[in-house]
Amino acid sequence: MARQSISFTQPNDEWLKIQVDNKEYSSKSELVNDLIRQARKQQRQIDWISSKLERAENSGFTNESKEQILAESKSLLNG
Question: What 3-state class would DSSP assign to 35?
């Protein structure tokens, strides 16, 4: 695992300390890694939605019902 040295603003550092003190995470590193994983997952979801929108805009319509689109979106959100 790569080691990094990063600096946090005081409010962010305090928030990180509180999460660790509350036993939500065992260390700041664990918490930062979890936040990055969440951000990466969110980006995949945004990319998926963007591609759906782009295809829909290019085709002018979709054959999927709103229920199908919603179900597929929810399944991606739930991993």
Answer: helix
